[in-house]
Amino acid sequence: MGNTRALWPRFLAALGRDPGLRNATDPLDHYTESVVSKIIDALPMRASAHYAHTLGEGLVSMSRLAELSGLAYLGPAHLAIHPVHGPWFALRALIVLDAEAPPHPEPAPNLCSACDQPCVAAMNAALRPRAIDVARDWHEWLAVRDACPVGTESRYPDSQIRYHYTKDRGLLS
After folding, report:
1. Do residues 145 and 88 touch, judged by C-beta distance below 8 A?
2. By C-alpha distance, which of 81, 89, 85, 91 is closest to 111?
3. What would the DSSP string read from start to end of 77-98?
4. Of 31, 10, 7, which is closest to residue 20 (Cα–Cα)?
């Protein structure tokens, strides 16, 4: 499961309805778990979830999963590139169903083979020798996504971008 820019207004509306959500350690992760739990509860079979924000045992490489499922192509800057949304979608959770597996999907198209791959230079700039601090250097990490020519019309609004990189709660109003 993932989201596009359409998540942001829904998430902000949920924050307005639920004061407890605003006080969560990470409101977006809490919101994600709440939505996914409701989906699982409505399913006619047993299911479980693995969340992108959960580290440790049960960790799932969401970008690799997106590639294997045919949802997105894993590009040269290690971003999952969706055929419509480019790098402007987020992978939030894997829902595992207690059901027979569907046929193996077709791979996502390689949208990077005909591209001069400006994302690689942007990634190398973001990785220059020093400690990685995404919240401090978020503009450089954003430049990696912005360099991709696919899905530019799906780019997140500025407040959503800044929140994802910095977790600045001042953006949640």
Report:
1. yes
2. 81
3. TS-EEBTTTBT--EE-EEEEES
4. 31
Give the count of domains, the chain.
Answer: 1
Q: pLDDT tens-digit profile of 4-49?
A: 999 999 999 999 999 899 999 999 999 999 999 999 999 999 999 9
Beta strands in the chain (DSSP E): 2-3, 47-51, 73-74, 80-81, 90-91, 93-97
Contacts of 101 (CB under 8 A, 6+ apart): none
CA distances 166 to 29, 81, 105, 153, Å, are 14, 22, 35, 23
Q: Which domain holds residue 43?
A: 2-171
Phi–psi pair at 137, nearest 5 degrees? -105, 30
Q: Are 50 and 60 in contact (CB under 8 A)?
A: yes
Neighbours of 125 (CB within 10 A): 14
Q: Is residue 143's pLDDT more than 80?
A: yes
CB count, 10 Å around CB of 97? 14
Please state, in angstroms and rounded to a whole number, the distance separating the CA atoms of residues 39 and 34. Answer: 9
